[in-house]
TrEMBL record:
This is Betaine-aldehyde dehydrogenase. It holds the Pfam family Aldedh. One of its GO terms (biological process) is glycine betaine biosynthetic process from choline. SUPFAM superfamilies: ALDH-like. One of its GO terms (molecular function) is metal ion binding. It comes from the Bacteria.
């Protein structure tokens, strides 16, 4: 790898690395073996202030550029990312523990797509013309100002880019705080944006735990905050933003249903369940962790799943044949182990997995529970690990009610050969994204986000532009200005 895991500085402000060793140490742990691969420092109040000041100073000139000029810089950054995909993927693997087989296609590549998509759109962000009799109104779609992004640890590069690309395309500047668990990748995005021509201060990164995130939200210079994280954090961030009536986007957790009807293509349904539960070792917000399987196909589904699970390769995450990595941290593995114990205590049948392979690192074997019922903890709470729960059902009406019987509403999937039923289900499922005969595909062209407690606002697609900009109405009178006296 060309990149050292120890960055030049902990933070990235106004176009270069910055450091303040007075901040608390933040060790970066490689989840594959528990070793420390870098030590960063949490942002001090001075660092937070410098980052916000840089973003504030850069914003007017950035917004004043033509959209195509901003777009050109984003497109250049995408090209650099693609050229360095392997090195960036290795860094992502070291930061998160996700196998290189995944990161080579899903992380830096997804960031590049976001920059390409929003870079392309930047010149097309326009207002409308609204006739009002002889007068008219035109709208200007304006930047919000200084924006804040706060990320989770499961997709550090993708999350940073999914926020930065549309925000910057709209003429905003950003201060991004990665999760303290995975602080390395966003720094590379910042470095590459500078190399691509982004003026100093347009995209800044500060490190630290939730307290640093909280400082950013409360600062009067910040117009908007976009969080990817859990529901409990979402509540705090939403409440803090509300104190100042700041605009928010909340990409939060889920407990999504994946529904397999008797008439489904068996192998496709099993593939969907594997992708929707074990990719990234189950650490994906949109996972279909409640797998509802209709009674007529249940035994065949479980048998085929057991056969396909023999294809799991746990091991060296830098070996491209490995398809399951460790959990991101010792803490996250403990949480998953707690859910595994709870599942067994409450009477679910552990069909396979759940063991802890020997050796250093935060490993756990992907697990499947069958005979899970709606009341069990593993069917209600987000686990954020490789634990699939298989639940039985008989009818469409029944499964729809049970699938929607959750406070979450991020995603949902349906496997059936009856397309009318597929569309009927997609319309009735309470979720921001539904998949028919596939699972977990999130192309940048399509809006992504949640309903109910899974979130507010949307990332990706044109919808993201609407969430990172504001329309201003300009009324133009063509006649005399009338008044009552
Ligand atoms: P957390 O909610 O623990 O943290 C998310 C981010 O918020 C971190 O950077 C965290 O800092 C920061 N944070 C914590 N408290 C505050 C606060 N009071 N004010 C401001 N920022 C704060 O989530 P995880 O990192 O554990 O990620 C897993 C969660 O993220 C899951 O629930 C998952 O579903 C969700 N997620 C949602 C996605 C979506 O698009 N809907 C995608 C990916 C994940 P730190 O951790 O450094 O202390």
């Amino acid at each position: 790898m060309t990149y050292a895991t120890q960055p030049e500085g902990s933070h990235y402000i106004a176009g270069s690395y910055a450091e303040d060793t007075a901040g608390t140490d933040l060790p970066v742990i490689f989840p594959g073996d528990g070793s420390t691969i870098a030590t960063l420092h949490e942002a001090t109040p001075d660092i937070v202030d410098r980052a916000l000041a840089a973003a504030k100073a850069a914003q007017p000139a950035w917004a004043a550029l033509r959209g195509v000029e901003r777009g050109r810089i984003l497109l250049r950054a995408a090209q650099i990312i693609r050229e360095r995909n392997r090195d960036l993927s290795i860094l992502e693997t070291m930061d998160t523990g996700k196998p290189l087989q995944e990161t080579l296609v899903a992380d830096a590549a997804s960031a590049a797509e976001a920059l390409e998509y929003f870079g392309g759109l930047a010149g097309a962000i326009t207002g409308e013309h609204i006739p009002v009799g002889e007068d008219f109104v035109y709208t200007r779609r304006e930047a919000l100002g200084v924006t804040v992004g706060i990320g989770a640890w499961n997709y550090p590069t993708q999350i940073a880019a999914w926020k930065a690309a549309p925000s910057l395309a709209c003429g905003n500047t950003m201060v991004f705080k990665p999760s303290e668990t995975t602080p390395l990748c966003a720094l590379k995005l910042a470095e590459i944006l500078t190399e691509a021509g982004a003026p100093p201060g347009v995209f800044n990164v500060v490190q630290g735990a939730g307290t640093v995130g909280a400082q950013l939200i409360e600062d009067g210079r910040v117009a908007k905050v976009s969080l990817t994280g859990s529901v409990p954090t979402g509540k705090k961030v939403y409440a803090a933003a509300a104190q100042h009536i700041k605009s928010v986007t909340m990409e939060l957790g889920g407990k999504s249903p994946l529904i397999v009807f008797d008439d489904a293509d068996l192998d496709d349904a099993v593939s969907g369940a594997i992708n929707g539960n074990f990719y990234s070792t189950g650490q994906i917000c949109s996972n279909g962790t409640r797998v509802f399987v209709q009674s007529g196909i249940k035994e065949r589904f479980l048998e085929r799943l057991a056969e396909r699970m023999k294809g799991i390769r746990i091991g060296d995450v830098l070996d491209e044949a490995t398809n399951i990595g460790p959990m991101v941290s010792a803490r996250q593995r403990e949480i998953v182990q707690g859910f595994l114990a709870k599942g067994q205590e409450e009477g679910a049948r552990l069909v396979t997995g759940g063991g802890v392979p020997e050796g250093a690192g935060f490993w756990i074997e992907p697990a499947v529970f069958a005979d899970v019922t709606d009341e069990m903890t593993i069917a209600r709470e987000e686990i954020f690990g490789p634990v699939m729960s298989v639940l039985d059902f008989e009818t469409e009406v029944e499964v729809l009610e049970r699938a929607n019987g959750t406070d979450y509403g991020l995603s949902a999937g349906v496997f059936t050969r009856d397309l009318a039923r597929g569309h009927r289900m997609a319309a009735a499922l309470q979720a921001g994204t539904c998949w028919i005969n596939t699972y977990n595909l999130t192309p940048v062209e399509a809006p992504f986000g949640g309903v109910k407690m899974s979130g507010v606002g949307r990332e990706n697609g044109w919808a993201a532009i609407e969430h990172w900009s504001a329309p201003k109405s300009v009324y133009v009178a063509t006649g005399p200005c009338e008044a009552p006296f």
